[in-house]
Amino acid sequence: MKVYDTITAALTDLRKRGFTVDFNLQFDQITCNDPIANARIEDFEVLETYRFEGDTDPADESIVYGIVTKNGHKGVLIHAYGTYAEDISEDMIRKLKVHV
Questions:
Q1: What is the pTM of this model?
Q2: pLDDT, tens digit (0-9, with 9 covering 90-100), for 18-62
Q3: Alpha-carbon distance 26 to 28, whole Å?
Q4: If you ran DSSP here, which 8-state letter would residue 35 be given?
Q5: φ/ψ (deg, to 5) at 87
Q6: CA angle, corner 1, sides to 36 and 40, nearest 5?
Q7: What residue spans of 7-86 are helical by DSSP H?
Q8: Quick one: how far is CA 51 from the chain centroid?
Q9: Average pLDDT of the residues of the chain
Q10: What are the contacts of 84-87 at 24+ separation with CB within 8 A?
Q11: Integer CA distances (angstroms), 49 to 33, 35, 36, in order
Q12: What does the pLDDT read at residue 93?
């Protein structure tokens, strides 16, 4: 797996490699602007994971996931952890935790 110095570098490279959908994390699914690409927990797989820890700013603590849905949509999900973590289901926590 590649190593990136910044989130921006990771996103730029992932986009070049076809991860073009911007996913958002909801309680028990990932969503985006195209409802066809939305996926419940069982309908997507995490292909790549990159963790970033801010040296001085907790807002920089994030994980970038490269995701593919069962219907073939490839995209990225940025998930903040720690203070800024979203409220998500236990099943979603388990799914994402496996890849960290």
A1: 0.87
A2: 999 999 999 999 999 999 999 999 999 999 999 988 765 555 688
A3: 6
A4: G
A5: -85, 110
A6: 25
A7: 7-16
A8: 10
A9: 88
A10: 84/58, 84/59, 86/25, 87/27
A11: 22, 24, 24
A12: 86
